[in-house]
Amino acid sequence: MKTITQLTKNKIIEAFHAAESDKSGLREFERDLYGASGRKTRHAINNICGIKEGLTYLELGVYRGSTLVAANYNNKLTTYAVDDFTMDIKEPKQYKESGWNNARQATVDLLNRYKFSNVNIIEEEAFKVDVKKIAKKVDIIHYDLDEHHANVEQILRKYLSVFDKHTVLMFSNWNSNGVRKAFAQFTKTPGIEIEPLFEKLSNNAGDNMNWYNGFAVFLFTLNTKEVEKEVKND
What we know:
Layout: H1 6-20, H2 28-31, H3 39-49, E1 55-60, H4 66-72, E2 77-82, H5 87-90, H6 103-114, E3 119-122, E4 138-143, H7 152-158, E5 163-172, H8 177-186, E6 192-200, E7 215-222, H9 224-233
Parallel strand pairs: 1-2, 1-4, 2-3, 4-5
Antiparallel strand pairs: 5-7, 6-7
Helix pairs in contact: 1-3, 3-4, 7-8
């Protein structure tokens, strides 16, 4: 983020409290889009991505595009979104009983509907992406990769070079012990200072009305020289 101040952090915390009360810039349609995210998760993402204009947002794990829409709706962002869109292909019977399109087509349809001109889709597996395709330093990252198909620590270390000096990291699937443990390991990376801003665990897995499988937000401050050494050593 270009400038982090206590006021900015306060705005992020206020964004969370607004989401708790089912408030954001989303209309009912965007709030209730079909996808693997909860109503309050989408409110929080929309609110946080709207704390300042001109931010750069990176979404790791798009799936069907519901949180991608939440981030960009009525917000002025530059967005990079990474997904290889293979989840429904690997599990062909999933989500087909009600006639839903596969994940890639669902995302394309949403992008066509909203005509977002600032969304750059990188259709690759997250760990194989050339991060030079992300042309700007990133202010906000939403990590929402399927925990069974991605290594949290390895993925975040791979993208360290595109973190700005101050970066907000939003985590979905925070209920997962595996995700939390891998993130804890990542926090040991030299050159990183981490401040937890809020976290919310879900009482019920896949709770569409609330936080789905949990949600957490952290503020990163990076020592660029230390991080560059770490990236070169990987």
